[in-house]
Amino acid sequence: YSELLIAPQPGGGLTDVSTAIETRRGRVSVHWTIADGVLRVEAQVPAGVRATVRLPGREQFSLEGGTIDETVAWG
To answer: pTM to 2 decimals?
Structure first.
């Protein structure tokens, strides 16, 4: 994996979701929660990997190796 898309799709009553995968370049992980009208997205991308991040109500942005901890209003 050298390019990824991180685009949470909240719904169906889910309020806390985590996923991770080990790649040749390192671990990719995404965790999102919804509480008190706020969607919080935490993600970690290993060095050498580029991720496009799409969050509801926000312009997409790129992350090239590193972490994010972003919140957006939800609901």
So the answer is: 0.92
